[in-house]
């Protein structure tokens, strides 16, 4: 009896290779998106003037103020996020759903004082797990899905966030102005003006 050689089906092998690549790709995406994001470490004195008080804060104090404000602001919100000032960046850290899994994201900013005494945050880096996505995509997602204070505005095209201290001060009996932001030394000076009547 003579055996006839088996004919190989190239479509079968192409399908198996494609299926393997799809499974590997999905595994890599899930691994990278569910990986933890590194968080910057957290780290004052006051000076007084006539109707103004100049306050100098360090990183630890700025982070404590931020945490206190956001805890109150997001008290009844389902979506939680944090704002942490590190040695190099100011970072927005949060969690969201991606492909059915809860993933952590972080968006790094370089803060700058504006001429009006506000704070402009320029986006410099982003991580969703260990997966890199376009900054504009994530900023648009934040703007649409996250509860932000009225005095915070996102500009997706410019990849900036403006912390408008003038708008924050509108309903208060005092006015806040940023005087200096020094990330290297970890010092942040603000002028608090108390109106005289």
UniProtKB/TrEMBL annotation:
InterPro entries, alphabetized: DUF2140 (IPR018672)
Stretches that traverse the bilayer: 12-30
Pfam family for this entry, one: DUF2140
Keywords: Membrane, Transmembrane, Transmembrane helix
Name this protein carries in UniProt: YpmS family protein
């Amino acid at each position: 009896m003579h055996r006839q050689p088996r004919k190989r089906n190239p479509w079968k092998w192409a399908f198996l290779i494609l299926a393997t690549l799809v499974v590997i790709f999905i595994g890599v995406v899930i691994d990278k998106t569910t990986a933890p994001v590194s968080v910057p470490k957290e780290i004052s004195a006051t000076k007084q003037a006539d109707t103004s008080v100049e306050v100098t804060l360090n990183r630890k104090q700025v982070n404590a103020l931020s945490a206190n404000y956001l805890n109150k602001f997001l008290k009844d919100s389902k979506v939680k996020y944090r704002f942490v000032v590190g040695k190099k960046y100011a970072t927005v850290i949060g969690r969201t759903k991606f492909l059915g899994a809860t993933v952590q994201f972080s968006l790094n900013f370089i803060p700058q004082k504006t001429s009006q005494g506000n704070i402009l945050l320029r986006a410099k880096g982003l991580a969703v797990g260990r997966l890199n996505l376009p900054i504009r995509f994530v900023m648009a997602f934040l703007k649409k899905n996250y509860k932000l204070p009225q005095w915070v505005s996102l500009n997706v095209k410019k990849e900036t966030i403006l912390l408008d201290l003038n708008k924050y001060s509108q309903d208060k009996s005092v006015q806040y102005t940023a005087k200096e932001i020094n990330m290297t030394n970890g010092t942040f000076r603000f002028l608090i003006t108390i109106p005289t009547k």
